[in-house]
Write a structure and sequence with these properties.
This protein is of the alpha+beta class. It contains nine helices and eight strands. The protein has two domains: 3-78, Nucleic acid-binding proteins (OB fold (Dihydrolipoamide Acetyltransferase, E2P)); 81-251, Up-down Bundle (de novo design (two linked rop proteins)), CATH 1.20.1440.120. The radius of gyration is 20 Å and the shape is elongated. Bound molecules: zinc ion. Residues 154, 156-157, 159, 176-177, 179-180 line the site of zinc ion (ZN). Zinc ion is lined by residues 154, 156-157, 159, 176-177, 179-180.
């Protein structure tokens, strides 16, 4: 079994027994990996408090049959300020869980790792609306996995949709015009404002999305649409999303 060096972001970490910690990480070159860090909880551990979710690391790991073993780590970005801010932490956790649940172990899509690193760096700075950043992240990750939403023309009749009522056809992965929506199931209604905002989110970089000032109602609507869109191919519920939605609904 080989030893390898990878950049990684910790997605989830939990204690195992008295001293060890199990990590789920996304790595730059080897996709999702699970690893054990031994002796983390001892006061003189060389890992200290470095192995927390959100931490971007340079890691040396030893490959194992089921679990790799962490040999050495160096912090690239700790993203401490994301963990310290309640709202940023909630939205960031939903991003981490989205990555963990939409990939299977070893599945390698390098641009997903890059997208996560960029988004976490943006989340550390000033963000007008973290809900919008999360919605953009969801749509971008879906697109990278191969579920790019088709939002220009009706999936069924090919008519270009500009303004007016349209629905997202979750089974088809794109929009359906008002006429074609009749009789279809598994639809998410979308206002013209939400549709044009989602189109912008898909083409803009995250730093631009972070500066957008939109009405909280449209942001909430767009985030709900993003969740429903990604849930149509993720076959399991994501716990952190419920927390995010409760947080938003309490604030409005
Ligand atoms: Zn149509």
């Amino acid at each position: 079994m080989a030893t390898y060096k990878e950049e990684a972001v910790v997605l989830r970490a939990y204690d195992l027994g008295e001293a060890d910690r199990i990590l789920t990480m996304i790595t730059a070159g080897r996709g999702l990996r699970r690893a054990v860090a031994k002796g983390v909880k001892r006061t003189r551990s060389k890992f200290g408090g470095r192995l927390e979710p959100f931490t971007h690391l340079d890691a040396v790991l030893h490959e194992g049959r089921n679990l790799d073993t962490v040999v050495q780590v160096e912090i690239i970005r700790s993203h401490e300020s994301v963990r310290a801010d309640f709202a940023k932490f909630l939205f960031g956790e939903a991003m981490l869980e989205m990555i963990e649940k939409s990939l299977h172990e070893g599945q390698r899509i390098p641009r997903i790792f890059e997208a996560l690193c960029v988004t976490l760096d943006v989340l550390e700075g000033d963000v007008c609306d973290p809900a919008l950043l999360l919605a953009a992240f969801e749509f971008k990750i879906c697109a990278l996995i191969g579920y790019h939403p088709h939002l220009d023309c009706c999936l069924h009749c090919g008519r270009k949709i500009e303004g007016g009522r349209a629905c997202l056809d979750l089974s088809g992965g794109g929009i359906a015009c008002a006429d074609c929506s009749r009789g279809l199931e598994n639809l998410q209604a979308m206002s013209p404002d939400s549709l044009s905002l989602i189109r912008c989110l898909l083409s803009e970089d995250m730093a631009t999305v972070a500066c957008r000032e939109e009405s909280p109602r449209v942001c909430r609507d767009v985030l709900g649409t993003a969740f429903r869109f990604s849930e149509s191919f993720l076959d399991r519920p994501l716990r952190s999303r419920q927390v995010v939605l409760r947080y938003l609904d309490k604030g409005t």
